[in-house]
Amino acid sequence: MLKQLYIKNFALIDSLDMDFYPGFSVITGETGAGKSIILGAINLLLGQRAESKYIKKGSDKCVIEAHFDLSKYNMQPFFTDNDIEYDANDCILRRELTAAGKSRAFINDTPVPLSIIKQLGEQLVDIHSQHQNLLLGSEDFQLRVLDIIAQDSNIVTDYNEAYDKLVSARKAVTAKKREIEKNVENEEFLRFQYRELEDARLESGMQETLEEEADKLNHIEDIKGALFQADQILSGSDDNGVVASLKEASRAIENIKEIYSEIGDVAKRLDNCYIELKDMAQEINSHAESIDFEPGRLQQVTEKLDQIYSLQQKHHTDSVDALLEIQDSLGEQLSNIDNSDELLKELEQKEKEALEVCKKKASQLTATRKKAAKIVEEGMKKRLVPLGIPNVKFLIRIEEKEYMHDGCDRVSFMFSANTNSELQPVSQVASGGEIARVMLSLKAMISSAVKLPTIIFDEIDTGVSGKIAEKMAVIMQEMAQSDRQVISITHLPQIAARGTNHYKVYKEETSTGTTSRMKQLSQDERVDEIAQMLSGADVTEAARHNAIELLKMCKKL
Known about the structure:
There is one protein chain. This protein is α/β, with parallel strands linked by helices. Among the domains are: 165 residues, Rossmann fold (3-Layer(aba) Sandwich), CATH 3.40.50.300; 158 residues, no CATH class. The chain contains 18 helices and 15 strands. The strands form three sheets. It has a six-stranded antiparallel β-sheet with strand order 2-1-4-5-6-7, with helices on one face. The mean pLDDT is 87.
């Protein structure tokens, strides 16, 4: 729960450092004193979007810091999951905002994204502001109330998983139907494209091989002429070529190497040259004889290349491998067309199976919500009768709706405050004061089901007074038991007198302008404050006496 709140340079607050305690605390102050500013600072700390306008005029940075005691709430898993140091006795949340619009968030001095501090804040503090009474007309809010009371989070998770699978199955069926419609329209064209590629009998590396062959065939005369010329020079006719001459030279040198030893190395090299040149001459001659001019082959190669180039241009690619991939893709599409009915039936069967699972999970969820609805109905009647609605009728209507992420239940809170009035949606028939009492009763029920450390009520008592206000204070006192902290911002003395701790927010004129301040009241100061709430600006002795009696009645003095 909240132990300490520190605010620096936020709106009208230059500096605030306040300790808070377990149990039921109240905050009072005149309208416009700055109570909403303090709430705004807490909201900012808990992850609300930051704006530079929040910074006190003349300052370049505002800081909001709060210390929490988590020792009784088993929250270590959150810190472990997010790799944040855990201190159960002193968890520190801090938010900094600069005039330049930069915002930083910290948990235990560890920088964290805003989403993380928001997640933690939701587990630490529940702020019921005045506008939240409007939530009473929200189906989502009413459904959440039932789920909290039912404590059906596991069932909700199971249903969500089943619903996600149903949505995926439905999307797959829809996509397949669209694909079939599209493919049917394009089937003839797809088959033409596939046959065209298939008839081309393409192979990987074919283009490079054909281009090389075409280049050779286009220069066949040059190749053949060069080979013939080289063959004539090397072999000649009548043994008068270079090879024959080199052989004669080798023989001549070989004949003298016995008597002229200095020439031995030359003789060996010359003989090697002869052998190598003779081999080359034979190879050139073989090439010259094997090459024949085939005009028909050149035409075949050229036509095949033209076919490949045409297909590449048509399909916007530059390789045979890419054409082969396109051919495979077209083949797969045609196979899907041929098997589309069967594939669609398989997907529809999966959708049917997913729907059956979803129905089963939704039925379980509905059953738990109906049980919770009975608990809420009885609990609300018990709480609302003492709050000045003796003839209250409260019914939770659960109707079936289309399967959605939150189930198939449409929930309506039906309300009547009078015996002769028909049940109507609570937001349509309840007065402002009645709605405040309904919301407080709901919060009381929720708080008993959820172990939330701190609950802050911002003028939940709007539209009520006297004994009803006192009863509401008693409910908030009860909520503040069992390791829970309840803080109520109020204008009613009946509620203020019930607080274990009493804080006052007030304005003060300083040399730098108007400043909002906050202090914890002593017993004497508390008497004066409640007396002022009872009588107005001028505190009379009678008002002080009434304040003392009110505090005595509440066993606080």
